[in-house]
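Internal tracking record. Fields below are filled automatically when a chain is submitted to the structure queue. Please do not edit lines marked as system-generated. If the sequence contains nonstandard residues, flag them in the REMARKS field before resubmitting.
Queue: standard
Priority: normal
Entity type: single polypeptide chain
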Amino acid sequence: MSTVTDEQLIAEYRKTENASQAGRNLGIAPRTARERIQSLTLNGRNPIPLAKVNGKAPPQVLLYDVETAPHLAYVWGMFKQTLGPNQILETTDVMCWAAKWLGQDAVLSESRVDDDSDERISRELWTLFDQADFVIGHNSRGFDDKIMRARWVKYGMPPPSPFKSVDTLTIAKSFRFPRNKLESLARYFDIGHKVEHEGFDLWVKCLRGDKDAWNRMAEYNIHDVVLLEQVYIKLRAWDNRAPNISLYYHDDLTRCVVCGSSSLTDIPQSAYTGVSEFPACRCRSCGKVMRTGSRYRADKTVLRNVL
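SYSTEM-GENERATED OUTPUT FOLLOWS
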């Protein structure tokens, strides 16, 4: 019987940001540590309960990133290869993932270093998605989201509860940055840079069972999510297609559509559509400019273009 208390286990988990490693540090089997932590945290995964509004949790915004293994295949050449199914030895799977709730310090992370497949870690990430109202990634619509959907359906899992997807790469493409990669955006905003490593050799070392390489992969993955959050905060006020987060608050306050803040200020300029004029306001927290739903001069007759 373990003598490690629940408080000690959670404290170690918050320090290491990895359930398996927390267990090892305290002399607990990794699987046992994971199961205990899941039973102790909010909905099985969130180590810091979110403050509630009128008895209900505010919108839960999840940021995440996955690292995947390469396909392994027999090939005849080095360029422009078209592979048949019988040439594929192993297809890609998830090596590790990292995620965090927007505005919280803890970064959650899991890898399949001790597993025969990525099923366990894929199921754990599904649990986070199932809690989230918004899920944010960089190139997530083109890569991460599709990878995870493929893994979940492979393991017979249903779709997670409804959520809105936000891709910082899509937002970045509305500007003309030198490059739209996460690393480039972080450097452009003087936020920082990715964790340096040896490149593809890091993936090879992980696949060969190098535990140190797995630790460095997890560090790389975790830091990407930290950078992602800061890049998202920089860009979010400029996202004209952002889902309306204010709808997810269960109160009567007028809130920002992007960050949910109720600290708004009127601005003198009106917002115009093709036929109407609306009062406009700015969020003091994120800077987003919005218009109200009530137009000026509703009784005025306005002509429309027909040619």
